[in-house]
Amino acid sequence: MPWLTPVLEHFGQALDQGRLPHASLVTGERGVGKRQLAERIAALLVCDRRAPGMRAPCGECRQCQLRAGESHPDIRLYQPEKSRMIRIDQVRSLSQFAVASPQVAGVKVAIVHRADQLNINAANALLKTLEEPASDVVLLLLQESGRPVLPTIRSRCRILPVATPPAEEATAWLATELNASEGAPDPERQALALYLAGGAPRLAMELLESGFLDQRDAALDAFRQFMKGAITVAMTARAFRDLGHEATLNLMEGWANDLARVMAGGLARDPGIAEVVRYLAQSNPPWRAQQLVDAIRDSRRALVNNVNPELETDRLLIQWRSLMPGRRRSAG
Ligand SMILES: [Zn+2]
C-alpha cells in the first residue's frame, strides 16, 4: 500500500531520532489501511534487528517469527466486539498490559482499533494510561474519519493522518491485488467498489470479497422495482436488510447526492442509479434532493439511539417514492 509510505517514513524518522511518541492517533477514512499501518509499525518496533533507516521488520528474527505466527505476546490488538463499542474491561486489560514487563521483546505495543468507539468509562480508563505511560509501551490508537475521539485523549497523542490515495493509485493497487487471484472482478466492478468505498482501497477489496456488491445489486434492483410501484415497501426493505443499516444509509446517501448532482446539471456517480435519478430530476425541484439528504442524516443520528432500523428504511423508501410523479399525495 504505497500511500502508507509517507506516514511510515514520518514514524520511522521519529523512531530513529529517539523522539517516538508514547501514543499516536492514526486517523483516516474507513478502509484506507490504518490497521495495516499500525501492524507494520508494531512489527518494526519489536524486531530484534531494527536499525536506523529500517522501515520494515527483518522478517527473520525470533520476534518476527513470533509475530508471523500471530502470537507475539508483546503486541496486543483491542477492538470493538459484538457491542460495537470497546468496553471498560478491555481497556483495563490494556492498562495491565501497559504496566507489565515485556515478555520477549524490548517494547510492548497496544493497538486500539477504533478509538472512536470507546464508551465513556472506557475512554476515561484509557486516559489514565495515556497520562502516566510506562516507558516501554507504545500506544497506537486508530480513528475513523468523521468519528469523534475525546479531546482529552486526542491531545495526548501525536496525530498521524493517513490520506486517501488519489483515484489512479487506488485503482492500480486494487487491480494488482485482485488480478493476482483467479476470477478477479472486471475493471468496471472494481471501479464501482472503489466508488462505494469512498476511494478507500482496502474497503473496496473487502466489499468485493465479502459479496457486498452482489447484495447491493439485489437492493438496487428491488429499489428500482419499488420506485415503479411494482413491489411493496416491505419487500424492498427486505432486500436492504442483508446490507445492514449503515450500508443502507451510505447507499441511499450516495443516490441522494447523485440526484442533487444531476439536478445541478452533472452526472450520477453510481451508474446503477443513473436512470432513476435522471427521471426524478426532471420532475422535482432541487430542494427535494436536499430534503432526502437531510432525512438520511437524521436517520444516521437516530441509529445511535437504537431506533428500529427497519422502520427507518421504510420511512426513507416512502420518502424516495414520494418523488415519483403522481405519487406525492398518496405517499406524502
Ligand atoms: Zn526481525
TrEMBL record:
GO molecular-function term, one example from the UniProt record: DNA-directed DNA polymerase activity
Q: What is its EC number?
A: 2.7.7.7
Q: Could you give one GO CC term from the UniProt record?
A: DNA polymerase III complex
InterPro entries, alphabetized: DNA_pol_HolB, DNA_Rep/Repair_Clamp_Loader, P-loop_NTPase
Q: Print the keywords alphabetically.
A: DNA-directed DNA polymerase, Nucleotidyltransferase, Transferase
Asked if Transferase is a keyword of the record, the answer is: yes
> Keyword Transmembrane: yes or no?
no
Query: Gene3D superfamilies this protein is in?
Result: P-loop containing nucleotide triphosphate hydrolases
Biological process (GO) annotations held by this record are: DNA-templated DNA replication
Q: Its domain of life?
A: Bacteria
Q: Which class of enzymes does this protein belong to? A: transferase
Mention any Pfam family matching this sequence: DNA_pol3_delta2
Catalytic reactions on record? DNA(n) + a 2'-deoxyribonucleoside 5'-triphosphate = DNA(n+1) + diphosphate
- Classification via PANTHER family: DNA POLYMERASE III SUBUNIT DELTA, REPLICATION FACTOR C / DNA POLYMERASE III GAMMA-TAU SUBUNIT
Name the UniProt record assigns to this protein = DNA-directed DNA polymerase
Q: Which organism is it from?
A: Marinobacter segnicrescens
